Amino acid sequence: METVYFGLGALTVMVVILITVVVMGVVRLKNVLEELRQEREVRREINDNHRRDIENVYRDVSDEVSGLNRQIDSRYDQLRNLISKN
Question: What's the alpha-carbon Rg for the chain, to the nearest Å?
C-alpha cells in the first residue's frame, strides 16, 4: 500500500512540475509575442516617418525646381522682349 501511495505522490509531483513548466512556457511565449508585436509597431512607425520625410523632401525640391523654372521663364521673356525691341 505504501508503494502505491509513494507512486501516486511521485506521479502527482511530476504532473505538478509538468503543468508548471507548460504554464511558464505559455507565459514566456505570450511575452515574446508581445515583444514582437511592439517591435513590429516600432518598425512601422519608423517606416512611416521615413516615408513622410522623403515625401517632404521631394515636395521641397519640387517646389524649389518650380520656382527656378518660373524665374528662368521670366528672364527668358525679359530677354526676348529686349531683343524684339531692338
Answer: 37
